[in-house]
């Protein structure tokens, strides 16, 4: 185990020996700790002596401390002696500005001032990219290939927060290291005191010299080791699955840029049809429908529709929404037996039906009673419910965009329409009804995610 003087530990993670070679540079000698154990370089016992037994306790200590590999150990005592910590711990190829040297000047894909690691006032630890070719931060194997330029990643939340993503890796032009903050989760008093001192050290009002301004960091003509990613799409990483259905799955996700907890609906694409497409290629028409419906949800906020924040199309189609803690009913009663669940559900539905029975009769009440019926033979499916709503005039298809919406006015409108017909007044057309838009009580029913909406004849359109 590391003592409370340790701030961070970096170990090589790439397979090309880039990180291990960089660790052994003379500039990193104050942080470098060589591997212990391994194969002996010379004889340690006589030929007639028995082979010593394996020391399991020593092996366990080496495993916990990362002693089986070369590593860089950043300690508070040495960090406090450094100059130029105003922006955090700097990493790059410039010996003038870098506290951690990632290679000599001209190393492919690594900039003079590549990234910095900083701690904010809430004791959260961040990585900020300042490179030309970008950095990729992986969380437990997620997003390891998502290279970004000028991006920010959350490396560790407030002290005491469990690290749910391990390992956390940093890729700088193919030089990959795994970074760990071994004392951050324990929240020891001495560690917190050291961390506060580091924060105060980083706030010192230092005036950088000419070299500290990074004026020596000229653009290199050496191409990056990998293709540069020009996209600036936000990066999310999944925490756990919180729901699933025919449409796909919903995950609790975390936004890397600010650590905000959100929900992500990963939509399952339809199976590939007979048209020739590559394996895993999404149907363009289906994707266009998803984009269209996402735009409608985003541009038409409604209290009955979940707000959407963004949509990601690669590596999978995911719609980002707000996350509501303890909003999953299965989580709220996961220790309840199946029999109790059924009893509770039947009681709850009975209460709803009793409330509906107390209402005045009408086509809308009749539809709700069919939707909540406990008897499976009497219960209306989503398809039959839409057909009934269209037939009874509760729903209408908007002529503007073809979507199905609640008919404005409901039962009252039907009575008014009947009275107008009796008086010789023509009822409003579908186009006229669609023109009565922006009604705050009209709920838009999206069609494509469910495979289409039936018309009054029952055909999916």
Describe this structure in words.
The protein is of the alpha+beta class and 461 residues long. It is built from 11 helices and 19 strands. Helix 7 runs antiparallel to helix 8 and helix 8 runs antiparallel to helix 9. It is elongated and about 90 Å long. About 11% of the residues have low confidence.
Q: How do you describe this structure in short?
A:
With 461 residues, this protein is an alpha+beta fold. The protein has helices at 18-23, 56-65, 76-79, 189-202, 284-299, 329-332, 338-357, 363-372, 382-391, 411-422, 430-435, and strands at 6-12, 32-33, 71-75, 89-92, 100-101, 115-119, 125-129, 136-139, 152-156, 168-172, 175-180, 236-245, 248-255, 261-267, 310-312, 318-322, 395-397, 404-406, 444-445.
Looking at this protein, list some descriptive labels.
4 domains, 461 residues, alpha+beta, Tumour Suppressor Smad4, 20% strand, 24% helix, 11 helices, elongated, Phosphorylase Kinase, domain 1, 5-stranded mixed sheet
List the helices and strands and how they pair.
Elements: E1 6-12, H1 18-23, E2 32-33, H2 56-65, E3 71-75, H3 76-79, E4 89-92, E5 100-101, E6 115-119, E7 125-129, E8 136-139, E9 152-156, E10 168-172, E11 175-180, H4 189-202, E12 236-245, E13 248-255, E14 261-267, H5 284-299, E15 310-312, E16 318-322, H6 329-332, H7 338-357, H8 363-372, H9 382-391, E17 395-397, E18 404-406, H10 411-422, H11 430-435, E19 444-445
Parallel strand pairs: 4-5
Antiparallel strand pairs: 1-3, 1-11, 2-3, 4-6, 6-7, 7-9, 8-10, 10-11, 12-13, 13-14, 14-16, 15-16, 17-18, 18-19
Helix pairs in contact: 7-8, 8-9
């Amino acid at each position: 185990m590391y003592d409370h003087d340790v701030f961070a530990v970096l170990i090589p993670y790439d397979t090309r020996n880039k990180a291990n070679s960089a660790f052994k540079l003379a500039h990193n000698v104050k942080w470098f700790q060589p591997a212990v154990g391994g194969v002996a370089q010379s004889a340690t016992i006589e030929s007639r002596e028995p082979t010593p037994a394996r020391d399991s306790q020593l092996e366990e200590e080496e495993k916990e401390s990362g002693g089986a590999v070369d590593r860089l150990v950043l300690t508070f005592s040495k960090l406090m002696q450094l100059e130029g910590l105003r922006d955090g711990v700097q990493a790059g190829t410039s010996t003038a500005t870098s506290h951690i040297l990632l290679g000599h000047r001209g190393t492919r894909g690594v900039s003079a001032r590549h990234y910095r690691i900083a701690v904010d006032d809430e004791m959260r630890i961040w990585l900020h990219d300042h490179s030309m070719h970008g950095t990729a931060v992986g969380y437990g194997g997620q997003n390891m290939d998502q290279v970004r330029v000028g991006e920010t990643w959350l490396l560790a939340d407030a002290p005491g927060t469990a690290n749910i993503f391990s390992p956390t890796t940093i890729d700088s032009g193919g030089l990959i290291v795994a970074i760990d903050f071994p004392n951050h989760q324990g929240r020891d008093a001495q560690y917190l005191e050291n961390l506060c001192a580091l924060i105060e050290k980083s706030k010192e009002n230092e005036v950088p010299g000419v070299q500290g301004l990074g004026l020596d960091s000229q653009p290199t003509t050496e191409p990056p080791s990998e293709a540069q990613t020009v996209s600036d799409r936000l990066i999310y990483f999944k925490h756990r699955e919180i729901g699933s259905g025919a449409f796909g799955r919903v995950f609790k996700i975390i936004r890397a840029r600010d650590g905000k907890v959100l929900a992500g609906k990963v939509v399952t694409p339809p199976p590939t049809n007979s048209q020739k497409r590559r394996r895993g290629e999404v149907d363009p028409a289906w994707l266009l429908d998803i984009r269209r419906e996402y735009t409608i949800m985003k541009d038409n906020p409604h209290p009955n529709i979940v707000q959407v924040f963004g949509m990601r199309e690669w590596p999978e189609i995911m719609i980002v929404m707000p996350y509501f803690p303890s909003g999953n009913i299965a989580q709220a009663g996961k220790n309840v037996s199946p029999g109790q669940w059924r009893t509770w559900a039947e009681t709850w539905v009975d209460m709803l039906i009793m409330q509906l029975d107390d209402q005045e009769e009408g086509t809308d009440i009749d539809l709700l009673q069919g939707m909540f019926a406990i008897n499976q033979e009497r219960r209306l499916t989503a398809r039959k419910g839409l057909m009934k709503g269209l037939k009874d005039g509760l729903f209408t298809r908007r002529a503007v965009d073809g979507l199905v919406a609640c008919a404005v006015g409901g039962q009252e409108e039907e009575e008014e329409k009947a009275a107008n017909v009796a008086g010789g007044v023509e009822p409003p057309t579908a186009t006229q009804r669609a023109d009565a838009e922006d009604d705050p009580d009209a709920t838009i029913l999206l069609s494509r995610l469910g495979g289409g909406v039936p018309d009054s004849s029952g055909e999916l359109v």
